[in-house]
Design goal:
Elements (H helix, E strand, L loop, with lengths): L1 H32 L9 E7 L3 E15 L2 E4 L5 E6 L6 E2 L4 E5 L2 H36 L5 H33 L2 E3 L4 E3 L9 E2 L6 E4 L4 E8 L11 E5 L5 E15 L4 E7 L12 E17 L4 E3 L2 E9 L6 E10 L6 E6 L6 E3 L11 E5 L3 H9 L1
Helix pairs in contact: 2-3
């Protein structure tokens, strides 16, 4: 009986101990499940206060560089090429011989004409001597007036024949010069599609000569800009990367519309300092129509999401303690240099966040830095 009572007493005490330990463990577990609350630290960011400035209104079109002096050389006579004295890319001077066509046939023609001229000269000289004799005989009354007149007529015919022969000789000599193809002006030789031995006609293109000075940019402006296009508009010529190759102004506006392109041709002279431009080169021409007051933001602070553009600005925290990052949608124009003109979404005085934008989230605490930080701190204190 005593052993049984001790057993039940021990069991009762053990059960109470286990219940006590369980309550202590539960209390400890509940205490660990409640994490301590900590305030998020503000992220330092550089800011820029939005202000209005002159932003140029521009459009970019395709332009072709052309030389005011450019020609395609074609022969004025037919024959076989015997010499090509230059190669593509050579710089030549005015009058320099570039090619030669076989002149042997023409040389023979010139020599034959020269012989004919000498024959007519001999006839004229004989008639001149005979005229002196006939005149003396007429004065002495030995021959009749009719015979004298015939002698006068003979010398006049001989003189006319000699002059005609001389003119024909000069013509044949001038045509002989056509067998040498010369540069009409100083420039650079283009492609040479012919070869020595080829037979060329007056319609054969032998080569081109382009002058690399006095270049112009040919730009076709859409007709909807007809009321705005005028002389003096600024034009920047750009390469494919957007780098400026030359800066110039419109100096010619066509009075007619090109029916094929439905555009208005404008020309802009290229300064001689633009050594990277060549005749026939295709570039982009950025035409500046004017300037207007707009806000601008750096290109790198703009994020594009779902076809829309966004920037982060500094906004007061909900309870007035510090600042937060606030993302807003903006409408942008065409980039000008490294900035976007802002058409809508920002107002003067807004502070755009410039740094750390890839780490920002809506409502994140920020600490403005930079020239606008003083104004931001004063606003927060109020």
């Amino acid at each position: 009986m005593r052993l049984t009572e001790n057993f039940w007493n021990f069991r009762s005490v053990s059960g109470k101990a286990l219940i006590g330990l369980s309550l202590v463990g539960l209390a400890v577990g509940c205490k660990k499940a409640a994490p301590p609350t900590e305030k998020m630290q503000a992220m330092p960011v550089m800011v820029q206060t939005i202000a209005l400035g002159d932003v140029p209104s521009t459009n970019t079109y395709v332009a072709t560089i052309k030389s005011r002096r450019s020609t395609t050389l074609q022969p004025q006579v037919a024959g076989n090429l015997t010499k090509i004295l230059v190669k593509s890319g050579d710089a030549v001077r005015a009058g320099q011989v570039l090619m030669q066509i076989d002149p042997l046939k023409q040389v023979a023609t010139v020599e034959a004409q020269q012989a004919s001229e000498q024959q007519q000269k001999a006839v004229y000289q004989y008639n001149t001597s005979d005229m002196a004799r006939q005149e003396q005989l007429y004065k002495n009354g030995i021959i009749s007036k009719q015979a004298y007149d015939q002698a006068v007529q003979a010398i006049q015919n001989a003189k006319a024949a000699l002059e005609a022969a001389g003119a024909q000789t000069r013509t044949q000599r001038q045509e002989l010069a056509y067998y040498q193809i010369r540069a009409p002006f100083a420039g650079v030789v283009g492609d040479i599609p012919v070869h020595v031995g080829d037979y060329v006609a007056t319609t054969t293109a032998l080569t081109t000569v382009d002058e690399d000075k006095d270049l112009e940019a040919y730009v076709y402006v859409p007709t909807e800009r007809a009321a705005q296009v005028r002389n003096g508009l600024g034009v920047d010529l750009l390469d494919v990367s957007g780098n400026v190759l030359a800066t110039t102004k419109v100096d010619f506006v066509s009075p007619e519309v090109d029916n094929d392109l439905q555009g208005i041709l404008v020309k802009a002279a290229i300064p001689k300092s633009a050594t990277r431009l060549r005749n026939g080169q295709i570039v982009n021409a950025r035409v500046t129509w004017g300037a207007s007051q707009m806000a601008t933001v750096p290109i790198l602070v703009v994020s594009h999401i779902g076809g829309q553009s966004f920037v982060f600005v500094v906004a007061p925290a909900p309870k007035g303690a510090g600042f937060i990052a606030h993302q807003i949608s903006v409408k942008l124009g065409e980039p000008v240099g490294n900035t976007y003109p802002v058409l809508a979404g920002l107002n003067p005085g807004d502070r755009v966040i410039l740094s750390g934008t890839q780490f920002l989230q809506e409502g994140m605490p920020v600490m403005p830095l930079g020239p606008s930080a003083g104004a931001s701190a004063a606003t927060a204190g109020n």
